[in-house]
Amino acid sequence: MRKTTIELHIISAILCVGLVFMTLDVSTAYSAEAKWIKVSNIHSFFQSYGSEPEEAFILEQQAGMRWPAFYAIQDCQAARGMWIGLTNYTDVVANNKVYSHKVVHCGPRPRTEIEENEFMPVTFKLVGRMAHSDVYVDGEPATPLVYDDIVEEYDPSMGADRMLYTKVNTEVGITFTKKIYAFSQQYNDNYFIYDFTFKNTGICSKADATGAIQTHQQTLQDVYFHWQYRNAVSKEGNVEGAVIDYVGDPGWGTPRSMRWGIHCMNHVIGIDPVNPSMAGKLFTGVTDMGGDKLDDDGNTIRAFYSWGGRHSGVSYDNIGSPNYQGYKADGRMGASQFIGVATIHADKSVSDKSDDPYQPAMTRKIESNDKATLTNTQWDEDRMTEEYQGWMSSGHPTKTQAEEVGAGFADQTAGVGGGGFSQAIAFGPYTMAPGDSIHIVMAEGIAGISREKNLSIGRNWYSVVKDKKTVNVTLADGTMKSISSETDANNYKDAWVYTAEDSLIQTYRRAISLYKNGLSLGDETPPDPPSTFEVESQGNRIYLKWTTNAETHPRFEGYKIYRALGAEDSTYYLIGDLNKSDGNLAAEFSDFTAVRGQSYYYYVVSYDNGSTNTISPGYPLHSSPFYTRTNKAAFLRKPPADDMSEIRIVPNPYNIRNRNLQYSGEYNKIMFLNLPVECKIRIFTERGDLIYTINHYGSGDNRWDLITSSRQIVVSGVYIATFETPDGKVAYQKFVIIR
After folding, report:
1. CA-to-CA distance for 120 and 386, rounded, in angstroms?
2. CA-CA distance, 212 to 432, in Å (whole number)?
3. Are residues 23 and 165 in the same domain?
4. Coil, strand or helix: which one is 500?
5. Do 292 and 356 belong together in one domain?
6. pTM
7. How far, in whole angstroms, is CA 174 from its chain's centroid?
């Protein structure tokens, strides 16, 4: 995978702390376990406390909610917070002190030792419908799921691919369970469903040294369940130096502050009981690109969503975050996603389990750097009163944050410290006697235009705005138009970005429908992926083979093979279709089109005949690519050479200006060709400093990514490579690097 200088520094730091991020099932600095869900097209981590505060992973501040997950740094999550508040609470942990307002917290800022006594994890386990695939490249494990999909329990009858189960006690005596469901079928792979049950168990402390815990038996009054979402769409387009295609280059030139969501726009739709006309209300300054805001049963969807708004710090229209002034600027958009949360169900009361259409009861913006978000405490009564009255129980604003900004610049009203705004929602108030419970279900999803459209639309926009050309385009409504003015180009680009609103509403509809269907896809469940997928680099081909377990599916049709060039986190292209209809069904494939010196990544999906697809009738339903996608390169292997005088270094010289003409997608790479079967390759500077060593064995080729043993990118200069075989034969060659 290609890395920026920033990312290489991060990798170096990660290596220094050992296997913390490899297992991802260990305690962080805040003593929380974290687990990933990575089997669908949305990847995110979750913590055992039930929420994901800022800097949950110290070096991965904005690591969660990655979509589309095929590509690097698509993170849209900066921080999450979850609070529970109530009134007139007798706190047995605090010597029966009575609090007029009591709030316990998890996030949105990092947890503290005090805060760990507010949310206390009990159970944290990942349940799978089936195991992830075993994937190998040249005999070595080649899937990140080895580390990121640690399933403790299997349930073949489960409708979802994965269910992450969390159980947490809180200091106010409410125990909650959180079930996170993830689906990998291609029409339901961009959201998670969160199923919460809150119960007044009375358990309000950890066990002490004797094993005793504190409990209460009291009715909890005016209970609110509150969430905060600090979104930042998305890192690829909003971080200086984050253009992963071009290592060491200055990025897209967007203000660094944009990475924290300073220009985040937040809008809410739903029904306000005080102002019913709010139902389905659209945000100001944006054309509604599609349809109503109703679910499949005709009910108003209750949701919020966030996207990247306008920023006054750039000289161009930054909607979608086009690459306007970075290296190899071409207009490609890097932050065109919409992300948000829809309410699927909220109990009316502990005795009425029907859905309350007026929940959530609070939908306010929160300044992301407000003092109440910086550190949390359950002992400051004035602070908790402010949190409860000012936020949790404060109802709905007259305007959403997006409506307040309108077509203006979001960063100019960015609040305290210029941190932008988070969106908050709260459910309540509920009265909960001992043993009472409340059930709340939500879906969090991301949607947007495709990678290909991000590129083509961005390029068209760039051609008009930067190159002053006239371009024929297809508008978001499907009509054709010739555009030549900056205004027309901006309207064209922005309208396409805003179609993500309707795509996200459609995502909500599917999540709501799936929940109402018992979280089962039924006949729309695709075939399982092959349980084993193996890739073998050979001399004249790259050979792929896999197991046939998917063929037991009642509507199984065949397999499709996809390949990416140069990096695993890039676009994959179909290179093979083996199916029953064509009579070429097989569980193996030979890639004879591979070119020597290039690196290739693969995945295979199994698919059905499309006969049960109700969304796109006739179109096949397929298994998730992420089960079999390889993260190790395969490449043609030339047999080793006997004559060391035949060794070649390619390219020589290496010139950074020509890197696009060298190894596609691998911009810091040279190859050593015609090597003996076994040798030690040592790389020295011209003055004789050893900077890297490679122990080579096997084929006649090996690669070097122009990185020293201390993980630094090498600078311009003359270098010397020595080649020494076990029997003492030595050869050397000089090569040049020009940066």
Report:
1. 24
2. 24
3. yes
4. helix
5. yes
6. 0.85
7. 30
Amino acid at 174: I
Q: Residue 44 has which token pair?
A: 């995110």
Asked if the structure places residue 176 within a domain, the reply is yes
Which stretches of 378-529 are assigned E, i.e. beta strand? 421-432, 437-447, 471-474, 480-483
Report how far residue 663's alpha carbon sits from residue 97's, in angstroms, rounded to the nearest whole number. Answer: 68
Taking the C-alpha atoms of residue 190 and residue 529, their distance in angstroms, rounded to an integer, is: 18
Of 447, 468, 489, the position where a domain reaches its end is 447
The CA R_g of the chain, rounded to the nearest whole Å, is 27
Helix (H, G, I), strand (E, B) or coil at 460: helix
Tokens linked to 662: 């060298």
Torsion of CA 117, 119, 120, 122, to 10 degrees: 170
In a domain, 696, yes or no: yes
Three-state DSSP state, 523:
helix
Residues near 275 by beta carbon (within 8 Å), at least 6 away in sequence: 396
What is the total count of domains within the chain? 3
Domain match, 261 and 213 both: yes
Q: Are residues 609 and 667 in the same domain?
A: no
pLDDT digits 0-9 by tens, 450-501:
999 999 999 999 999 999 999 999 999 999 999 999 999 999 999 999 999 9
Give how far Cα 683 sits from Cα of 425, 502, 653, Å: 58, 55, 15
CA–CA separation, 635 vs 539, rounded Å? 9
Q: How far is CA 383 from CA 99, 386, 387, 402, in A?
A: 12, 5, 6, 28
pLDDT tens figures, 244-286: 333 333 345 455 555 667 889 999 988 766 655 444 444 333 3
Q: Confirm whether 260 is domain-assigned.
A: yes
User: What CATH number did the domain enclosing 712 receive?
Assistant: 2.60.40.1930
Which residues make Cβ contacts (< 8 Å) with residue 139, sequence separation at least 6? Answer: 536
- Please state whether beta strands 153-154 and 556-565 pair in parallel, antiparallel, or not at all (unpaired): unpaired
Q: What is the CATH number of the domain that holds 562?
A: 2.60.40.10
| Token representation of residue 633 | 């390169």
CA distance 139 to 130: 23
Task: Give per-residue pLDDT as tens, 203-249.
Answer: 999 988 888 999 999 999 999 999 999 998 988 886 543 333 333 33
Per-residue pLDDT at 295 = 80
Query: Residue 262: which of 232, 228, 283 has the closest Cα?
Result: 232
618, 654: one domain: no
Query: Rounded to an integer, what distance in angstroms lies between the CA atom of residue 266 and that of residue 528?
Result: 38
Residue partners of 661: CB distance under 8 A and separation at least 6 = none
Phi–psi pair at 724, nearest 5 degrees: -130, 125
By DSSP bridging, strand 654-655 and strand 730-738 are parallel
Answer for the pair 136, 531: CB distance below 8 angstroms, yes or no.
no
DSSP 567: -
Domain interval for residue 692? 644-738
Q: 466 lies in a domain? A: no
DSSP letter (8 states) at residue 390: I
270 and 299 Cβ atoms separated by less than 8 Å: no
Is 402 or 254 the better-scoring residue by pLDDT?
402
In this structure, how many other beta carbons lie within 10 angstroms of the beta carbon of residue 433?
Answer: 11
Cα–Cα distance for residue pair 80/366, rounded to 1 Å = 12
535 with 658, same domain?
no
Residues 119 and 238 in one domain: yes
* C-alpha span between 79 and 82 (Å, rounded): 10
162-209: per-residue pLDDT in tens? 999 999 999 999 999 999 999 999 999 999 999 999 999 999 999 888
Instruction: Give one DSSP letter per residue of 372-389, joined into a string.
Output: HHHS--SS-HHHHHHHII
For the beta carbon of residue 221, count every other beta carbon within 10 angstroms.
13
Entry field: residues in the chain:
739
Tell me the C-alpha distance between 439 and 241, whole Å.
44
Q: Would you say residue 657 has pLDDT above 80?
A: no
DSSP structure class, residue 300: B
Same domain, 648 and 612: no
